[in-house]
Amino acid sequence: MRKLLLLLALCVAGAASLASAAAETRYTVVKIDLRRERLELFLRDDSGVEFKRLDRLEAWLAARNRQLLFAMNAGMYHADFSPVGLLVQEGREVAPLNLAAGTGNFFLKPNGVFLVSDAGPRVVESSEYAALPKEGVRLATQSGPLLLRRGVVHPAFIPDSDSRKIRNGVGVSGHTAIFVLSEQPVNFYEFALYFRDVLHCRDALYLDGTVSALHSPALRRTDFTRELGPILGVAVP
What we know:
Layout: E1 5-11, E2 25-33, E3 39-42, H1 54-62, E4 67-73, E5 87-89, E6 92-95, E7 112-117, E8 120-125, H2 126-131, E9 137-143, E10 146-149, E11 152-153, E12 168-173, E13 176-182, H3 188-198, E14 204-208, E15 214-216, E16 221-222, E17 231-236
Antiparallel strand pairs: 1-2, 2-13, 3-17, 4-15, 4-17, 5-6, 5-9, 7-8, 7-9, 10-11, 10-14, 12-13, 12-14, 15-16
């Protein structure tokens, strides 16, 4: 069986860049080299029913002789589990780009899009995606806020914010997509600095908070927090 590169990482919150944090914060990091692994977006089964849970997706794939090596919630969704923003599966736009104003994390501008094209993975600001050529874009998911844009932390983030939650997100480095889940509550600023200063990403996107979930047989883990909308995953025959 092929194995993804899995990294269990520690971020020392007492370091200079995170001096305001009170204790060590642990993150689980999954790095996927998209030159070797194929990332997919999942939402509904063949009958149009949403998967909602990582174990249900795993069972559906197993019935088709495929093994789910990695999965993580892929962005924000409505009460009916449909995506709040853009969703592209296998080159087909399932939900349109959402550039509207609103309240909540998704609408904390700039928000962004994680995409995989023939050129590899990217995280871009949502309005930048609108101007991109869509030919060759195989998958895309929109969420918000952006954690990093060209190495700059989102301007609305507050270093000493007491809004601490379990959070997950995705950054890019070359041909590698880097997925991160905090195992302890963190604020947005700390989360962004982890991507920038520890993982050396210039662009990173917040995916979600309380619903953050990870599937990894290598880590003997299939999380269930709440039912999910879109799911990012790697599955093999």
